[in-house]
Amino acid sequence: MFVYYGRLVGGNISVRYLILSDIHANITAFNTVLDVVRGKWDKAVCLGDLVGYGPDPNEVIERVRELDAVTIRGNHDKAVTGLTNPEEFNPVAHAAVLWTRERIQPGNLEYLEKLPKGPVRASTFSIVHGAVYDEDEYVFGPEQAADGLLGAPTPVVFFGHTHIQGGFTLRGHDVATLQTRPAFPNESTTIKLARGMAYLLNPGSIGQPRDGDTRAAFAIADLENDSVEFWRVPYDVQDVQKRMTEAGLPEPLILRLSFGR
Ligand SMILES: [Fe+2]
After folding, report:
1. pLDDT by residue (tens digit) across 225-261?
2. What separation in Å is there between the alpha carbon of 118 and the centre of ligand 1?
3. What is the whole-number distance in angstroms between the Cα of residue 103 and the centre of ligand 1?
4. Where are the domains of the chain?
5. Which fold has domain 34-258?
6. From the CA of 24, how far away is ligand 1's center (Å)?
7. Does pLDDT of 5 surpass 60?
8. 3-state DSSP call for residue 194?
9. What is the mean pLDDT of residues 181-197?
10. 157 Cα to the center of ligand 1, angstroms
11. What confidence tens digit (pLDDT) does each residue in 10-40 have?
12. What is the pTM of this model?
């Protein structure tokens, strides 16, 4: 069967990719995002960490599966499946992994176990969870971004793991930091990509932002038109906090959603 994605814009076929990362079992944030962007995207990708921290691991996995998103694994997905030892996590993250293991449905656990490791190519760009060379490494600054930018499999790579919306560019040998976060109350800001440059871009985290902005973060990429939109969408933080309390998840994980840290 031939599956067609995309839309005709000015004589060119354009495919708008919804770029999701670090949903972390927060179905309240995820559902709000999907409602806001309904009709605005053609194909979805997910950069890992579907589970961990939040109260809704099964609901989030099932929604990602429904979207038929090109998905790779994150470090929390690996810890829940036992691919890595969760004792290497901090105590609250470890507790959330054990909580998730007790509640995850067998079919959803099997789905997580089969998720590939990045980098995975999706159309003209690539996706990784952490760094290009190490799925578990955090890329916080331009020095850490340089190796990935120089050795990237495609000119544009999307990464997650830090939960910080933003990115890095490479022109020649110069690496620079991109400011991408839409200022409140704007919901999105668009960057135009230049040919001949390399980009390492982080859509931010849907379920547990850590850049001081409590709004759910994600991106929409339209690379045929050299544009990437960075989005922030407010959601009902108290609703998910209430369910986390009822579920007995650790208090620091509940409180941090109020601060986006
Ligand atoms: Fe994460």
Report:
1. 999 999 999 999 999 999 999 999 999 999 999 999 9
2. 14
3. 19
4. 34-258
5. Purple Acid Phosphatase; chain A, domain 2 (3.60.21)
6. 7
7. no
8. coil
9. 88
10. 17
11. 666 789 999 999 999 999 999 999 999 999 9
12. 0.94
CA of 1 to the centre of ligand 1 (A): 35
Gap from CA of 172 to ligand 1 centroid (Å): 31
Pairing of β 125-127 and β 120-122: antiparallel
Q: Write the pLDDT tens digit of every residue in 97-122.
A: 999 999 999 999 999 999 999 999 99
Task: Check the CA dihedral 199-203-209-213 and report its sign.
Answer: positive
Residue 178 has which token pair?
A: 């991109």
Measured in Å, residue 49 CA sits from the centre of ligand 1 at 5
Secondary structure of residue 107 in the 3-state scheme = helix
Residue 43: closest CA among 81, 71, 5: 5
The predicted structure's pLDDT at residue 206: 98
Measured in Å, residue 107 CA sits from the centre of ligand 1 at 22
CA of 238: how far to CAs of 68, 88, 223, 255, in Å?
29, 30, 36, 10
Taking CA atoms, 144 is separated from 89, 140, 168, 239, in Å, by 22, 7, 10, 36
Residue 1's pLDDT is what?
Answer: 39
Ligand 1 centroid distance, CA of 185 (Å)? 25
Distance 3 CA to ligand 1 centre (A): 31
DSSP 8-state secondary structure symbol assigned to residue 167: E
pLDDT of residue 2 exceeding 50, the answer is no
How far, in Å, CA of 110 to CA of 104, rounded? 10
The pLDDT of residue 6 is 63
* Contact yes or no for 126/201 (Cβ under 8 A): no
Ligand 1 is an ion; residues with CB less than 5 A from it: 22, 49
